[in-house]
Write a structure and sequence with these properties.
4-stranded antiparallel beta sheet, alpha+beta
């Protein structure tokens, strides 16, 4: 799989996708659920491109102070 959602701090893979947009959409769902649960932490997740070895998305609310 090319795109993985991972924990930015530890680098642990959470889920993986061939489609970049699906990975981004899923990360947004994770963050939305974290907001509902009251456990949201900015910059916790990222979508990582395993081919280019770079982070391509840090979530919809990367600078939120919620």
């Amino acid at each position: 799989m090319r795109y993985v959602i991972r924990n930015r701090h530890a680098g642990n893979f959470i889920d993986e996708y061939d489609d970049k947009n699906k990975a981004i959409y899923t990360l947004d769902l994770f963050e939305a659920q974290d907001l509902i649960d009251g456990i949201y932490e900015p910059h916790f997740y990222e979508v990582y491109d395993t081919v280019n070895e770079e982070s391509i998305y840090e979530g919809r609310y990367p600078n939120a102070n919620i």
